[in-house]
Amino acid sequence: MNDLAGKHIVLGLTGGIACYKAAELCRALVKEGATVQVVMTEAAGQFITPVTMQALSNRSVYGSQWDAREANNMAHINLSREADAILIAPCSADFMAKLLHGRADELLSLMCLARPIAEVPLLIAPAMNREMWAHPATQRNVAQLKADGAHVFDVGSGEQACGEVGDGRMLEPDELLAEVVAFFQPKSLLGQRVLVTAGPTYEAIDPVRGITNLSSGKMGFAIARAAHEAGAEVTLVAGPVHLATPRGVRRIDVKSAQNMHQAVMEQAPDATIFIATAAVADWRPASAAEQKIKKDGTGQAPALAFVENPDILAGVAQSERARGGALYCVGFAAESHDLLANAQVKRARKGVPLLVGNIGPATFGQDDNALLLVDEHRAVELPRADKLTLARQLVAEIARRLGHAA
Ligand code: C5P
Questions:
Q1: Of the residues 313, 358, 371, 373, which should be mutated to test ligand 1's pocket, given the most ligand atoms within 8 Å of the CB?
Q2: Which stretches within 115-241 are classed as H helix?
Q3: Pocket residues for ligand 1 (CB within 6 Å)?
Q4: Annotated active-site positions, please?
Q5: pLDDT tens digits, residue range 270-297?
Q6: Per-residue confidence at 404, pLDDT binned at 50, 70, 90?
Q7: Which of 111, 223, 308, 319 could make a disulfide contact with 76, Cβ separation 3.0–4.6 Å?
Q8: 209, 72: one domain
């Protein structure tokens, strides 16, 4: 992915042990397509050298407002005018206090103060000891910085360099990268609450065997991530898959279709958009054996009886909120042929305004896909791309249909 292509980010480092993570973060931003200009405070230089940051960003590092390299001798103006965002990572407690008061006695704080506030967002990744983080002064500063328009990221929790355990660690580089990428996405679903199902279901035959399918969950997880990036509150009901939960998404793990049905019915009353990507088993064994079914030596296969699972999507689509327009339902159809015709029939049968068709064998387990969006009036093709790109396009289409285009 090149999610930050064309973005110029000024990466500010202040004094803290988390500077070691800033090296990896710089590399990750560059890999994602951004150009990165590093600015370091004197204290940051106690933790990591400008040489390291220069090598990773491929640009010489700035550290002083008296830097004679700038023809007009105004590094604070030039650097901030070029930026799409200023990201302070790590941001120490002291530096937050400085920002709060509009202090400007060295290059980084001077640059933050001098930035055009409406055009150059200020992103802050705090990093400090847990007592410093919990202190009322710091919490007051965080609240005020947010009120002043800065975007303050959460802190991580866990073991700290000082040996104590608690809140205040800087987020990991991959987490911060996801936050920065999300920050730049259009907020087309702000205020929406999105419920997504993803992955396969598992229908037990006995304690060690069951019926499942090849759905990887990747499309549903990508949609959950894209909806969160678009500003929605997202709940993801996931069948058994080994995928990391997208940042900021609430995840409920389930196993069987019945578990998924129950979880969805509990969550649906709070949702404004329901996107069913899960490959739900149509049938389950009528009863799961309590003990492992063994061969009895006769060569006779055990007779399994099946009962039909509830159709989760169709059930939600029939609810009063869905029929009244308060809950917008989107279904998926994995077909093997005649995508348009099959998707049209399925849309009508499920009673949903939008159905997304894809060719099952061509997408299960893959990182890319191609989608066909079928509504009452027409079909829109989203050509083959990676699943996150498609998920963002689908989210934009849903927002457009709801009249919330960014
Ligand atoms: O009928 P079919 O399984 O092809 O329909 C696919 C769509 O319906 C998907 O959106 C899927 O998540 C949803 N579905 C469901 N509950 C079922 C079966 C399918 O929500 N029992």
A1: 313
A2: 130-134, 136-147, 173-184, 218-229
A3: 197, 257, 276-278, 280, 309, 311-313, 331-333
A4: 162
A5: 999 999 999 999 999 999 999 999 988 8
A6: low
A7: 111
A8: no
